[in-house]
Design brief:
With 244 residues, this protein is an alpha/beta fold. The chain is built from ten helices and eight strands.
């Protein structure tokens, strides 16, 4: 394996506790959309998160259309995506908090200068920027090393498409094998793995030991190399990958 010189972090529920906050806004707009399409099903934030965790709202809208058998125009999708983004950013600026234990890890990595650090997310760039700025993590990442599948690519996409990871590697100037990704969702893990990046699966943001064990199995099936229950295990997890 090539020497690891770059760490690529997912944002939502990996760096910042943002998924629950975001999916509350997603659920409100999703239910409005379903009502307009005469679909009787309704979603709560947690219910929507269970189905679509790791995807951006454009991916959620696509999934809802496929599941419930309706079709929106591109203009309608764009309008919903824009409205959701505004709602989510407002909430994140008020309530977002860092994932438990991540700040000391970022501090140590930043000070060591051994690895480059970047954020690779499905979420819109303005949302990711709002999240990391709110919790004081923006100082760890060069502004041009924060990447969004919804914003940074010529054609918007979402994880598990590996395009955003491949794009990040190209911009940073690294081969996938020189990087390690940290992901908390199946879609995110698949995105990194499909890009050829060895991946740490983080389950610490999931509530309860049972759910964490369930997600550990899901992430292993997606191809992650090691599972991390807590950020205090990061150095050991990284060392395991570097020794492979």
């Amino acid at each position: 394996m090539p020497q690891i010189t770059q760490i690529l972090f997912d944002c939502d529920n990996t760096l910042v506790l943002s998924e629950e906050l975001a999916f509350e806004a997603c659920a409100e707009l999703s239910n409005e959309m379903l009502a307009k399409q005469n679909v009787s099903d309704r979603y709560t934030g947690p219910g929507l998160m269970t189905t679509f965790v790791g995807q951006n709202f454009r991916g959620v809208v696509t999934g809802l259309q496929q599941k419930h058998g309706f079709k929106l125009s591109d203009a309608e999708v764009d309008e919903y995506v824009s409205r959701e983004l505004g709602k989510v950013i407002e909430t994140l600026k008020a309530k977002a908090e860092p994932c438990v234990g991540v700040m000391p890890v970022l501090e140590n990595l930043y000070k060591s200068k051994k690895y480059g650090l970047a954020v690779v997310s499905s979420s819109a760039l303005s949302r990711v920027q709002a999240s990391v700025e709110k919790v004081g993590q923006d100082k760890f990442f060069p502004p041009d090393h924060i990447f969004s599948a919804a914003t940074s690519l010529p054609v918007p996409t979402t994880k598990p498409d590996p395009a955003i990871y491949l794009h990040a590697c190209k911009v940073i100037g690294k081969e996938p094998g020189e990087c390690v990704a940290v992901e908390d969702s199946r879609s995110g893990s698949l995105s990194a793995v499909r890009a050829g990046i060895p991946t740490i699966g983080y389950v610490g943001s999931y509530g309860g030991v049972i759910k964490q064990k369930e997600m550990a199995e899901v992430l292993k099936e997606a191809g992650v190399k090691v599972i991390m229950d807590d950020w205090n295990q990061f150095d050991d997890c990284l060392a395991k990958i570097e020794a492979m």
